[in-house]
Amino acid sequence: MPTTERTASFVPELLAPAGGPGPFRAALAAGADAIFCGLGSDFNARRGADNFTYQTFAEACREAHLAGARVYVT
Predict the structure, then answer these.
(1) Quick one: pLDDT at residue 40?
(2) pTM greater than 0.85 (yes/no)
(3) How many domains does the chain have?
(4) N or C: which end of the chain has fewer CB within 10 A?
(5) Rounded to whole angstroms, how far apart are CA atoms 9 and 30?
(6) Reading across the β-sheet that carries 34-37, which strands appear in turn?
């Protein structure tokens, strides 16, 4: 069996879901590298969640970026 040499280490990303501003802040506090969430009814895969308004989403993105985390809209 051939051996494979790694030249760079791989660090997995901790991706957390957030159904609204409260869970979003909890994910940041828990050390999430990235958070995925829905936005209003236009960009949302989770209809039962509280989700974000455009204003609360903008605030959450600012908080995430200050913490060095990424935000994904699903």
Answers:
(1) 74
(2) no
(3) 1
(4) N
(5) 23
(6) 15-18, 34-37, 70-73
